[in-house]
Amino acid sequence: MAPYAEPKRNERELNSAMDAKLRLIWVGSKLNWAGGPGRVVSQGAEALAERGHEVHIIGRVPGDDPGDIPGVTVHRWPMWQLKLRQIPPLVRLIRQVQPHIVHFHSAIPHGEVILATHGLRRLRADAPKVFLSPYTSNRSHYPKRRARLGLRVADRLIVSTHWSRDRAIAAGANAETTQVIPTGVRPAEVPLRDERDNVIVMIGRFVPIKGAHIIIDAFSRIAAEHPDWKLVVGGLGRDEAALRKQAAESAYTDRIELPGGIYGAEKADLLSRAAIGVVPSLAENFPGILQEFQAYGLACIASDVGGLPDAAIDGAARLVPPNDPAALARTLDEWIRDPITRTQFRRQALAFATQLSWPNIAERFETAYRSAL
Predict the structure, then answer these.
(1) Do 116 and 147 fall within a single domain?
(2) d(Cα 57, Cα 111) in Å, to the nearest integer?
(3) What angle do CA 327, 331, 332 make, to 5 degrees?
(4) Cβ atoms 75, 58 nearer than 8 A
(5) pTM higher than 0.90 for the full model?
(6) Tens digit of pLDDT for each residue in 45-88?
(7) Are 19 and 141 part of one and the same domain?
(8) What gap in Å lies between CA 226 and CA 230, rounded to an integer?
(9) Of the residues 36, 64, 166, 296, which has the fewest C-beta atoms closer than 10 A?
């Protein structure tokens, strides 16, 4: 990769940053564009580049290279790179790029790396502002010392939900410099259909916290009353064998599909024709799959937990108690019997997703960056 170098910024250039394009470095914990923080990093960086800013991404590559991003320069660390050994190459990149902002994106804040970046101010008057976006939904993460350190030393926090904001502040973040900006979502990749198939869909990792076992239980409770409906549960993970066993033991196993991982065109086709999307998580911050359901105009049901209420504003989703298959079954039964209500939720979901399009969210990131400068 050819090194990028630019003349050192002077005070006049820094003062004119409110009007000029921004130079940004986004630091990801893992460069994997398929889900979680990686989806936010890749799509958000591309949206900022489309607004004319210079964007660099740096992070560890877990196995297969995730590929390039249009308009964005990607700098790759080896996966084995220890946290403290990430500091020298990050400092070198900062010297090359002379960024206005270094923005860390991770589930658990990398406190030692954030502290080292923040400490550049002692050496340089034009050191970048340090932003942090934590994405964890696990209550056990913030008590970790390095996570709290990252929350406290960053100049600004951008969190995706009010729930995440409250947790970050409780762990030591400054309330005055912590801002909620939801993650963005891309529009549907295929034309949306008005008439939908009788399909309920859930997509997520096959781990207990994602609740795939709950939707299989809930569907089995109502399947007898609705013989023309089926359930598709897409995903991979350590619980796959147990979930397949649960589905096989259901009296309605012929209408419960577990196709494995669903990606790309296959996912777009499924979401364009499914009627109801369910996110039955036991803990969650702001899942990208719920946003995708909304962007494809599905009627959405989600657990009333973590940051999910932020994705249910103005009827964009119906909330149900977490870990309650009976409550979820009642809502599914109600919606199957009432297509008018289902259609209303579909429209509200699509309107919500339109508000959270990446161009809109990138503009909000830009405003936050400029206000910090």
Answers:
(1) yes
(2) 18
(3) 115
(4) yes
(5) no
(6) 999 999 999 999 998 887 778 889 999 999 987 766 567 778 88
(7) yes
(8) 9
(9) 64
Q: Is 79 helix (H, G, I), strand (E, B) or coil?
A: coil
Q: Which residue's structure tokens are 């996966």?
A: 79
Residue 130 lies in a domain: yes
* Phi–psi pair at 190, nearest 5 degrees: -135, 160
Computed over every residue of the chain, the mean pLDDT equals: 89
Q: What is the pLDDT of residues 13-25, one digit of tens each?
A: 544 555 689 999 9
Question: Are residues 205 and 236 in contact, defined by beta-carbon separation less than 8 angstroms?
Answer: yes
Non-local CB neighbours of 371 within 8 Å, separated by 6+ positions: none
Could you tell me if 170 and 224 lie in one domain? no
The residue type at 368? A
The answer to whether the CB of 333 falls within 8 A of the CB of 22 is no
Name residue 132's amino acid.
Answer: L
SS3 sequence, 134-187? ECCCCCCCCCCHHHHHHHHHCCEEEECCHHHHHHHHHCCCCHHHEEECCCCECC
**C-alpha–C-alpha distance, residues 60 and 69, integer Å:** 16
Question: Coil, strand, or helix at residue 230?
Answer: strand
Whether 25 and 169 share a structural domain: yes
Q: Is residue 29 part of a domain?
A: yes
Write out the DSSP string of 93-112: HHHHH--SEEEEEESS--HH
* 304 three-class SS: coil
Q: Judge if 249 and 367 occupy the same domain.
A: no
Domain range spanning residue 256?
A: 199-355
Place of tokens 């009333």: 304
